[in-house]
């Protein structure tokens, strides 16, 4: 399968991004079709790779490749995984689509959604807000009940610690200098129960995402401008919060072929619906 050279006319981005760039992290683009094995090897070659899988811990290990523009699929018969206008389609109700199974059923019934893939938290090279803002690691402080969280990852790890009665770890998580440090502290939580975590994790991320995007006008505008697009965390390394596939994998456009649940993408869609009122 061949790729048409990438263009920039489909990039959804607004406004300049403040603050320094985060080196070595970006949105997965691609250099042509890759197998899952090659996608993983490419990710492992990036600075900061630590390996390991989720194993009950939220969001898995995010190690991202350098940022490149999305590719356009040619003659695949599928909607390409990029930012594009989503046609009106009464068979797909984004406000009611919260699981891969629901989305798969909608597509099987004739829905033709557009997908917006993201992975990593590096700003656009032109200084505008792009898909990287959808990452849990995107630097955008917000407050909930008077407590400040530097990133959505800080919020999630603090929430995880509170859920399992590890209040003593919360101040350390809040003071973590990076989302990676916050995540590592979250792994120190004791008394972890998988069933209880599964019960609460989705709403926890939705609440944090609603605060993150709701308290920053430019982030709010960006999220709402994604319209009815299906938000897809195209991480080939994460089968819980992502789809277990890279953005340049043909299957990223077909929820029936996803290798993961895309919980982060659906949580962001729920936050978008709440902010839209």
UniProtKB/TrEMBL annotation:
<feature type="compositionally biased region" description="Basic and acidic residues">
    <location>
        <begin position="54"/>
        <end position="71"/>
    </location>
</feature>
<dbReference type="InterPro" id="IPR037238">
    <property type="entry name" value="YbiA-like_sf"/>
</dbReference>
<feature type="region of interest" description="Disordered">
    <location>
        <begin position="1"/>
        <end position="72"/>
    </location>
</feature>
<protein>
    <recommendedName>
        <fullName>NADAR domain-containing protein</fullName>
    </recommendedName>
</protein>
<dbReference type="InterPro" id="IPR012816">
    <property type="entry name" value="NADAR"/>
</dbReference>
<feature type="domain" description="NADAR">
    <location>
        <begin position="130"/>
        <end position="275"/>
    </location>
</feature>
<feature type="compositionally biased region" description="Basic residues">
    <location>
        <begin position="34"/>
        <end position="43"/>
    </location>
</feature>
<dbReference type="Pfam" id="PF08719">
    <property type="entry name" value="NADAR"/>
</dbReference>
């Amino acid at each position: 399968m061949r790729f048409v050279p990438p263009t920039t006319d489909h990039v959804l981005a607004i406004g300049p991004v403040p603050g320094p760039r985060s080196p070595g992290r970006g949105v997965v683009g691609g250099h042509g079709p890759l197998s899952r094995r090659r996608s993983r090897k490419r990710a492992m070659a990036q600075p900061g790779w630590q390996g390991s899988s989720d194993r009950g811990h939220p969001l898995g290990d995010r190690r991202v490749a350098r940022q490149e523009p999305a590719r356009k699929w040619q003659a695949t018969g599928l909607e390409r995984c990029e930012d594009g206008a989503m046609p009106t389609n009464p068979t797909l109700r984004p406000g009611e689509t919260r699981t891969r199974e629901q989305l798969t059923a909608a597509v099987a019934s004739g829905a033709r959604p557009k997908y917006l893939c993201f992975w990593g938290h590096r700003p656009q090279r032109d200084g505008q807000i792009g898909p990287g803002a959808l990452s849990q690691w995107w630097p955008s402080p917000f407050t909930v009940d008077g407590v400040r969280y530097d990133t959505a990852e800080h919020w999630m790890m603090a929430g995880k610690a509170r859920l399992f009665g590890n209040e003593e770890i919360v101040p350390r998580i809040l003071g973590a200098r990076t989302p990676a440090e916050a995540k590592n502290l979250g792994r120190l939580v004791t008394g972890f129960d998988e069933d209880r975590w599964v019960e609460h994790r989705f709403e926890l991320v939705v609440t944090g995402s609603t605060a993150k995007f709701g308290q920053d006008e430019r982030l709010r505008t960006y999220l709402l401008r994604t319209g009815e697009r299906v938000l897809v965390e195209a991480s080939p390394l994460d089968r819980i919060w992502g789809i277990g596939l890279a953005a340049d994998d043909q299957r990223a456009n077909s929820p029936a072929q996803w290798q993961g649940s895309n919980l982060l993408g659906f949580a962001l869609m729920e936050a978008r619906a709440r902010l839209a009122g």
